[in-house]
Write a structure and sequence with these properties.
- By secondary structure, the protein is α/β, with parallel strands linked by helices.
- The protein folds into six domains: 2-46 and 676-735, no CATH class; 48-118, no CATH class; 134-211, Arc Repressor Mutant, subunit A (Orthogonal Bundle), CATH 1.10.10.10; 226-327, no CATH class; 440-519, no CATH class; 527-675.
- Helix content is 30%, strand content 21%.
- The chain contains 24 helices and 32 strands.
- It has a 19-stranded mixed β-sheet that branches.
- One of its GO terms (biological process) is defense response to other organism.
- Keywords: Plant defense, Repeat.
């Protein structure tokens, strides 16, 4: 930050109205530089037409368009990559689609080393600067991204759990390994090495992807270091990477993206050193020799399309396996799952498994168990010996389960001994899971409702009750879709004894909700709340105002009855989301001045928004940074929000999001598209902001641009017309380029 301090101190506050524009690829640097009255402008990638204009200036032909499509896809709208391609093509007599296709195949090699006419030197320097700045486990985490296909959405938690299973988040200190994994992930996001697709309610990245050029660079580096081996049509091992082929037995991570290729290499491939196997599509012969991978720790078969139930008997012999993810071709989990002694993560969400053997629950190191409406095996529930062993295992605090997501909680019970009064079911077993931190269950309509509600209340109490001086970081998700309408409103907890309280970090409620369940108002530290119901009543919505510590509130409904947020309500709330199918049948929500004083993000996901939404004046939200609206809103509505954002002192970003036709309670995985770049400069009397947009557009088209943010600082007088606009790279090896200076008289 010394560079920023030097720049900042050079411009005295003389009230002449200048502004400084700095560029950097590091988001945290941009945040520090913009602290106070600065503004961070996200430099977006170029669109398809602009990309063609930069890469092939003045050249158009059907043959070139067809042959260059894959190459432009890898460039992904990055100006510096497109300029490098343009320079390379200029060295040939005539650019053709065939030449573009060849360059596309060899692009990774050009990013690694000089090939005669070095058109990629600037781009290579930017990439190498990023690469050389990483060390230790952060570098391993970076290379690990080469396992996944380009542009494949990657879930943050899936990636970090795999890193943990691989041992890429270890520490000699007492630091938590999950914190180290999160820190490495955040660093890759902060440096724009991986690109966010959507974020969680606490502003953490939920889903991401690797940039086109960055992915090519990561993949080539990983292959050349024999860190991974990729078997796919895009990267034929013997042809494209002969050195890697000769040393394939040293590859630690194997990624199979075309099962047909595996058949021709299985006989001569030594797999004893492989630590992970990831399959996309057909596995081919990969499963048949998986037992050769004696030390394998990660087996990701979630997207494997030809895995069979009987294959699992072989997989369950992999003693060292820590991470197992299965896909939609699996219907049953074998009892020999108890052979996976070291297993930490078992992901069954995409399978058709409905019955879970108790052997899975008794795995001593199992930390995360995910399913889709799982139930304990009914034969196991009737087996006195098995149920006794299970209760003894749980009561002895031998279970390491922290996440239990996707179970159906019905009234089925088993017998711990011959006495009927000692019968226990899933809800009673939860009481003995002492390390549980995340619970997601589906509630059912049952015959013995009183007993069932008592068991459910006790399970919730066990998860939420903590000493009064401690914060509870647990999360709970309850689905009431298959219960009676009045069931949620009668769900309550016993009063807390002295020295304890009910607390929870995150709560999701879905189903038939006429009223807010009474226990919700007892959760003193609740910060994240998501409620999904066909209709959200005024009484339920009014009860939410008592939750003063909420940071995030998401409301999902077909119909939202009158919702008024009064002055002083939700004093801590930073993110508010309305996801409503229609506002036509009810008055829109209104927000009084003085409500939501700390709001940062406002999401209005409804295709028929009334212009301005009655009572919704965003000027009162002093900390507002972003507004998200439904992509299906009218042009008039979009213009309204664009205009409102432009008048706001913070100039919040206005983003469009596509929502699913069927409103769901899960977070959306579709990326927003920024509308700010589409503002047009007025030719008659341009404003300062329009002039800045014009300069930033030039930056985006300049050959020096890379992944970056522009920090705009009004050095003097916010209301004064700037006499000049200056663009300064914050650091050559940080910004990845050498930006132009722009001036205007």
């Amino acid at each position: 930050m010394d560079e920023w301090r030097a720049v900042n101190s050079a411009f005295a506050d003389s009230s002449t109205g200048s502004r400084i524009i700095l560029t950097t690829t590091i988001q945290s640097v941009a945040n520090v530089c913009s602290h106070g009255n600065g503004y961070v402008y996200q430099m977006d990638n170029l669109g398809e037409e602009d990309s063609k204009e930069v890469a092939f200036p003045g050249i158009r032909s059907p043959e070139l368009e067809h042959g260059s499509a894959a190459l432009l896809g890898k460039c992904d709208g990055l100006p510096l990559a497109l300029v490098s391609v343009s320079d390379y093509l200029k060295s040939s007599v005539e650019p053709t689609g065939e030449l573009c296709a060849k360059l596309c195949r060899d692009l990774g090699s050009h990013l690694k080393e000089n090939h005669g006419h070095d058109s990629f030197s600037d781009l290579r320097k930017v990439l190498l600067d990023n690469y050389d700045s990483l060390a230790g486990y952060a570098l391993s985490c970076f290379l690990y991204l080469g396992i996944f296909p380009r542009n494949r959405p990657l879930k943050r938690k899936v990636v970090t759990r795999r890193w943990l299973a691989e041992g890429y988040a270890r520490s000699e200190s007492l630091r938590d390994e999950q914190d180290i994994a999160d820190e490495n992930f955040n660093k890759l996001v902060d440096w724009n090495i991986i690109q966010p697709i959507d974020t969680r309610n606490n502003s953490q990245v939920k889903t991401c992807r690797t940039h086109g050029i960055m992915h090519e660079f990561v993949l080539h580096k990983s292959l050349s270091h024999r860190f991974i081996m990729t078997l796919s049509p895009d990267h034929p091992r013997a042809a494209a990477h002969p050195r890697a082929a000769a040393n394939a037995n040293n590859a630690r991570h194997l990624s199979v993206q075309d099962g047909k290729l595996i058949e021709c290499v299985a006989s001569d491939e030594e797999l004893s050193r492989v630590r992970s196997l990831t399959v996309f599509g057909d596995a081919g012969g990969a499963i048949s020799f998986v037992l050769k991978c004696k030390l394998i720790r990660v087996l990701d078969l979630e997207e494997c399309s030809d895995l069979k139930d009987h294959d699992l008997k072989h997989i369950c012999k992999l003693w060292h396996l820590k991470y197992l993810s299965l896909g939609g071709t699996i219907h049953e989990l074998p009892r020999c799952i108890d052979g996976l002694h070291c297993l930490e993560t078992l992901d069954l969400r995409r399978t058709k498994i409905q019955s879970l053997p108790v052997e899975a629950i008794q795995l001593p190191h199992l930390t995360h168990l995910f399913g889709n409406k799982l139930m304990l095996d009914k034969d196991d529930l009737k087996n006195v010996n098995k149920m006794s062993k299970l209760e003894k295992f749980l009561s002895g605090k031998k279970s390491n389960l922290q996440t239990l997501a996707g179970f159906v909680a019905d009234d089925s019970k088993g017998f711990i001994c011959s006495k009927k009064e000692d019968s226990k079911g899933f809800l009673q077993l939860i009481m003995h899971m002492y390390k549980l931190r995340k619970l997601k269950i589906w509630c059912k309509r049952v015959a013995n409702r009183d007993s069932y509600m008592s068991d459910l209340s006790k399970a919730i109490q066990k998860l939420t009750k903590v000493p009064i001086d401690r914060h509870n970081d647990c999360s709970l998700s309850l689905d009431f879709e298959e219960t009676d309408k009045d069931f949620p409103s009668q769900l309550n907890l016993e009063p807390c004894s002295g020295g304890s309280k009910y607390d929870l970090r995150s709560l999701k409620l879905q189903g038939k909700l006429l009223m807010l369940p009474p226990f919700v108002t007892l959760l003193s530290g609740l910060t994240d709340l998501c409620i999904s119901s066909a209709t959200l009543t005024q009484g339920l919505l009014s009860a939410l105002a008592n939750l003063g510590n909420l940071l995030y509130l998401k409301l999902i409904a077909d119909l939202l009855e009158g919702f008024e947020i009064k002055h002083g309500a939700f004093p801590s709330l930073r993110r508010l989301c309305f996801q409503v199918r229609s506002l036509a049948l009810a008055p829109p929500p209104t927000i009084e001045q003085g409500a939501l004083p700390n709001l940062v993000s406002l999401q209005l996901l409804c295709p028929d928004l009334v212009v301005g939404l009655s009572g919704m004046d965003i000027r009162h939200f002093k900390h507002l940074k972003e507004i998200t609206i439904d992509a299906d809103t009218t042009a008039q509505e979009r213009q309204h929000w664009e205009h409102a954002a432009k008048k706001h002192p913070n100039r919040p970003r206005v983003m469009l999001v596509k929502t699913a036709n069927q409103i769901e309670s899960e977070e959306l995985g579709l990326g927003p598209c920024d509308m700010r770049e589409k503002r047009k400069r007025c030719p008659a009397e341009p404003s300062l902001d329009d002039a800045l947009d014009s300069s930033l557009k030039k930056m985006r088209l300049s050959e020096s641009s890379s992944w970056s943010q522009a920090i705009i600082h009004p050095v003097m007088g916010a209301d004064t017309m700037a006499s000049s606009s200056i663009a300064i790279p914050l650091h050559a090896d940080e910004s990845g380029g050498w930006m132009q200076q722009h001036s205007r008289s």
